[in-house]
């Protein structure tokens, strides 16, 4: 579905867009049991139609539903991309375990990687005073994060919900002139990061999760849409291993997650899959992020036609140079972030154009689709998010003038 640029630099974004106050209130009422699923979904078509139209007015080429089908009951929410899956997977039991309150230290051994608790991440350990200071602005999602546990064989129960996502976006696309639409879905590796009390091994759990989530991917792609696989676990988990592992051990750990994802994607046309990589969307120092050069070749083995990744923030903006030494395979595209979700500063269109041209200089103008670092919804004030998208499209127009004449 994602075709090469022929006469201009195409634009897109990573997925989550700011919800309106009305949609947030509708989500809150449903989450709090004050309304039914039927009452909520009756409102979604209008909300999705509006967000698709707004994307097109801004100038976004490849649009989505804003992830409006993923419940987000408050304006600030870093977890909707993941938490939505809990209501679509059977075999889970509610838990009162707060992933941020838990301070369990799980130490890894050479050759054996184990993820520690969120509160024991290496970046958080280094800057604990800043992370725990409510006035620092470092960690915007300091709210409790309560997740269920896996207590039985998992299954996919989200058929109705994903069909709602598909119907709403398909209808909105028919009302617009958008050439392409995508729906975001969580990866097996990211979905499997909740507490597991049933499966005996990582491999067993990951491939069971792959078979479950494959049903969601097929529902999206069978409808002619593109599925975006959200998988920060590939890069982000590096920070969640104590002590820091060797790169070789970490790549072995992530390879199992890549294999499970490719198992889930088997038979799905590559051009209908885009893969999103990020280092975690929280607003923090990120000094313990793994360098992109260490994982890029592994990422490129994922059966996707396009790859989105952070490339605008201060920790990863220099990594466009990675593509000098790691050629992009034939027929694949990159969707680098040229505006960031992690700062309120709105990037100047000239800077956006410069970033696009840097990538074009190493992979070709036809293979660069301008995007955002991560989702903007739940992370930035709506007016700032809109301004960033406007700057993205303005910068893409400038780059188009220079690259296509």
Structural account:
This is Cobalamin-independent methionine synthase II family protein. This protein is α/β, with parallel strands linked by helices. The protein has a single domain, classed as Alpha-Beta Barrel (TIM Barrel), CATH 3.20.20. The protein contains 15 helices and 10 strands. The strands form 2 sheets. The chain has a 7-stranded parallel sheet with strand order 1-4-6-7-8-9-10. The radius of gyration is 20 Å and the shape is globular. The protein starts with 20 loop residues before the first helix and ends with a helix.
Summarize this structure briefly:
This protein is of the alpha/beta class. Helices cover 39% and strands 12% of the residues. One of its GO terms (molecular function) is 5-methyltetrahydropteroyltriglutamate-homocysteine S-methyltransferase activity.
What key phrases describe this protein's structure?
405 residues, alpha/beta, TIM Barrel, 3-stranded mixed β-sheet, 15 helices, 39% helix, 12% strand, globular, UROD/MetE-like_sf
The residue-averaged pLDDT reads 92
Order of helices and strands: HHHEHEHHEHEHEHEHHEHEHEHEH
Report the CATH topology name. Answer: TIM Barrel
Which structural class best describes the helix and strand composition?
A: alpha/beta
Rg result: 20 Å
Oligomer: single chain
Number of domains: 1
CATH architecture: Alpha-Beta Barrel
Shape estimate: globular
What is the share of helical residues? 25-40%
Question: Strand order of the main beta sheet, please?
Answer: 1-4-6-7-8-9-10
**Cα distance, first to last residue?**
25 Å
Sheet of most strands: 7 strands, parallel
The number of helical segments is 15
List how many beta strands DSSP finds: 10
Q: Which residue ranges are poorly predicted, with pLDDT under 50 across at least 5 consecutive positions?
A: none
Which strand-content bin applies to the residues?
5-15%
């Amino acid at each position: 579905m994602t075709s090469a640029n022929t006469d201009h630099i195409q634009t897109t974004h990573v997925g989550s867009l700011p919800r309106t106050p009305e949609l947030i209130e509708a989500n809150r009422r449903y989450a709090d049991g004050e309304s039914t699923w039927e009452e909520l979904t009756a409102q979604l078509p209008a909300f999705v139609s509006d967000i698709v139209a707004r994307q097109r007015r801004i100038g976004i080429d490849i649009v989505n539903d804003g992830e409006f089908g993923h419940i987000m009951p408050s304006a600030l929410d870093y977890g909707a991309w993941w938490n939505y899956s809990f209501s679509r997977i059977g075999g889970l039991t509610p838990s009162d375990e707060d992933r941020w309150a838990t301070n369990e230290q799980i130490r890894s051994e050479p050759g054996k990687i184990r993820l520690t608790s969120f509160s024991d991440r290496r970046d958080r350990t280094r800057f604990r005073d800043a992370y725990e200071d409510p006035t620092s602005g470092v960690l915007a999602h300091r709210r409790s994060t309560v997740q269920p546990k896996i207590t039985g064989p998992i299954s996919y129960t989200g058929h109705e919900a994903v069909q709602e996502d598909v119907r709403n976006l398909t209808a909105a696309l028919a009302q617009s002139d958008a050439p392409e639409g995508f729906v975001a879905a969580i990866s097996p590796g990211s979905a499997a990061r909740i507490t597991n009390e049933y499966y005996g091994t990582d491999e067993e759990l990951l491939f069971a999760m792959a078979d479950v989530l494959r049903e969601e991917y097929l529902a999206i792609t069978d409808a002619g849409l593109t599925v975006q696989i959200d998988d920060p676990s590939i890069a982000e988990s590096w920070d969640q291993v104590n002590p820091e592992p060797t790169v070789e051990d970490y790549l072995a750990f992530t390879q199992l997650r890549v294999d499970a994802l490719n198992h889930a994607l088997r038979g799905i046309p590559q051009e209908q899959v885009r893969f999103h990589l990020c280092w975690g969307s929280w607003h923090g120092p990120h000094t313990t992020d793994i360098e992109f050069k260490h994982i890029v070749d592994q990422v490129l083995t994922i059966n996707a036609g396009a790859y989105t990744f952070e490339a605008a923030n201060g920790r990863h903006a220099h990594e466009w140079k990675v593509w000098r030494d790691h050629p992009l395979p034939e027929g694949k595209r990159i969707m680098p972030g040229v505006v960031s979700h992690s700062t309120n500063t709105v990037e100047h269109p000239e800077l956006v154009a410069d970033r696009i041209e840097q990538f074009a200089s190493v992979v070709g103008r036809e293979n660069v689709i301008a995007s955002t670092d991560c989702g903007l919804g739940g992370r930035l004030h709506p007016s700032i998010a809109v301004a960033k998208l406007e700057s993205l499209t303005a910068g893409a127009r400038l780059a188009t003038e220079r690259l296509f004449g």
